[in-house]
Here is the input.
Amino acid sequence: MDLHSELEAFRAPIARWVDERLLPQAEALDEAGEFPHALFRELGALGYYGVMYPEDVGGSAVERPYTAFTALCEELARGSLGFAAGVCMQGSTATHTIHQWGNPMLRERYLEPALRGEKIGAFAITEPNAGSDAASLRTRATRVEGGWRLDGSKIFTTNGTVADFITVVATTEPGKGAKALEMFIVDTTWPGFRVGRRLDKFSVHCSDTAELAFDGVFVPDDHQLVAESGSAFLNAYQSLTVDRIFTAALALGNGRAAFEAARRYAGEREQFGQPIGKFQAVQFKLVDMYAKLEQARLATYHAAALADAGKPITTEAALAKIVAADGCHEVCQMAMDIFGGYGLMKEYPVQRYLRDSYFPRIGGGTGDIMRLVVARQLNL
Here is the structure.
């Protein structure tokens, strides 16, 4: 079976689930702005959180895991980017760290139930005064008898208020930069942990985002993630580059939804005695939208294929995120233009697509940071 046939065979059932289960609820989820627990568990029971993992931990063991997970993120974002963002966190960053650097106990207690959708995970790195500059993190891990004491705060944590466990990045030696950063698994039932507040966003409403506080949280030694060489965080920072591809896929799925909505509307809305889709001005917009989607698709799946082949993806992943996030944002803007005044009405989803299109441009590293990554790769 060739790659295209294999990918479409994987895509077909998740696309059907999106059409039958997610799309009918997408507007209500956005309006309520609440984490969709029932849908989240349902998707987990279908095995999709284990796409990138082997069978011995409850994964799906697909042949091309990065390409498959890219398709999953794209299809889910076509239905609801907010829902897709939580799934992307669950199936990648929040679970990858435990699979890669966690001990058997952590895998059994957190990873395996998370892949079944029975527990929810999160990854906490960003702080109020430290975003792109990870070396400036202030959350402190202090060595105590039997483990570590965590003190500090995090912000913009996806799945933060609903998580059962969180991978927390903290410094063991303030002032030593990234080399002193380590990762710890925090059970959200532990004393000293609390959700500071659930953050209210104008975009991706049903994607849970939180500010977190750690006040003397005791973390046992067996809940520290340990790499064979160097800190687990530095290893994670390199390997999690692939998440930029998944963010690009989120943008692509959302852009596809906007394009299809605009194309349908152009065939239904009549002015001057004919559908507006018969006017060249609208046709040219739709063609430009389609071209941007194709550019995003090619860049995104090219990077995913390289990841599956075990090849370097630093440049390609950053480029995919730039091309997809910016291009699909423009697609959503053009869709709004085609809808005109009706695009501003909540009865049409195009306003949601445009609002949600801002998320991939910022989440997982801003466009400027992606450009900086590529510039360094080019030795500029």
In short: The chain has three domains: 3-115, 121-229, 236-377. Strands lie at 121-124, 140-144, 147-158, 165-171, 181-187, 193-198, 209-220, 224-225, 270-271, 274-275.
